[in-house]
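Entry 14. Structure prediction run on the chain below.
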Amino acid sequence: MDINHEYLPDINNIVDSLRKGHLALFCGAGATADATNATWLDLFREELKVIDKDVNDYYKLAEYYKLHFGKSKLINTVTNLFSEYKPSKHIMHLLKLPVYEFWTTNFDCIIENMIEENTGVMPSVIYNSSNIIKINENKKYRVFKLNGSITDGDSMILTATDYDNYKYKQALLIEFLKRELVLNTFLFIGYSFDDNLVLSCLREIKQCFPTLDYYHYRLEKRSNKHAIFQKIEAKYFEDNYNIKTIFVNSYDEIDDFIEHIYARFTERNVFISGSFRNLSRDEEDNANLLCKVLVHKLIDEGFNIYSGDGKRLGSYILTNATRKMMDENIANQNRLVIMPYIDHSFKTKKADDVDRVNLVRRMINDCSAAIFLYGQSETGEASPGAIVEYNEAQMRNMLTIPIPSTGFAAKQIYDSIIENNTPGYLERYIHVLSEETDPERIAQTIIEILKANSM
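Output returned:
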């Protein structure tokens, strides 16, 4: 997808919110339409032929359906339509983002099912004011279903009467939505705003904070037929609700846009691989100094640090980075990610064991660059685990920066890279990398390579 330069400031804001842990996703019916293949109109097309007039207000249409067939029939019809579960490719793309708060007006369970299937984590699902206490469950993911859920038929907001009573019955849920709209940046996907639910919340926020200058964003498919209307509508959303519109040419481009956001997020994420067991006191002091200088420079330059808590070296990465952030009052959200992926049972497993490799993949998946330091095994040779991490980094075309002066696996990886056609991003630094031992110079060289290859 070719990104319109007009949207670059907006993309920067979205990515910045993502990195700070302040991005929330709001999914309307369009976000899961590829899985449900169903719309409100499908509910009534066949059975409401008795109504000889087109009705565009689906809440009113549902009200008529209830009057004609009864509330139980309405609930059963909706439940049956949305009960069949199929994965949504749109949600699959969204799950790549480190976003843990999903809001939706959909009744179906696609979002929560896909979160559980793809992450192994069951989310908290909050669909009315009475179960908002689930916020305290301390689960990684939270799914807020504003219109109720098919798992509880009485919770669904279906008819005009349901909607009229909504603000009274779901007052707590609405208040929590307002809170999140103030604290976070929302990205709206496949949501029409026709129900006025979110807009009424934003209207109140605008009245309370008339000078508020932060924005939410909506992704909208461009219409050549209604270009003038869309331009006016976009200005209306921006002026009245602080919602900026990002136009795409097709629904598939929404997925491409999300992929671009994810790529922008990963570009500042750096994985540090390394370990050592048997170094002299002076060598270990130098290793600590290298880790300290490196993580300080990475944090100062806005890079985020990922590490697998490698033997001995991992503790130096963690300690120096944590102390730096404490001293400068830097929030830890996404700035330092440590995944201790080797447990006691792994001691008997080979480095290429499938469980170990899967954990390595989880660890480096959100990174665009990998730095290799030392990598000494228990036998004093190159660590097979570091070599596995290098191979995984190569498969992902990650920027790979080994420091040969630290020896062991780092030296082996460096030699392999040089022998197999030195990549362009390392060519001008070959001399420094191969000979430099000063921690300050090494760290500065790494920063120069990373900055030269950032988007």
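The chain has two domains: 5-264, 268-452.
Filed with the rest of this week's runs.
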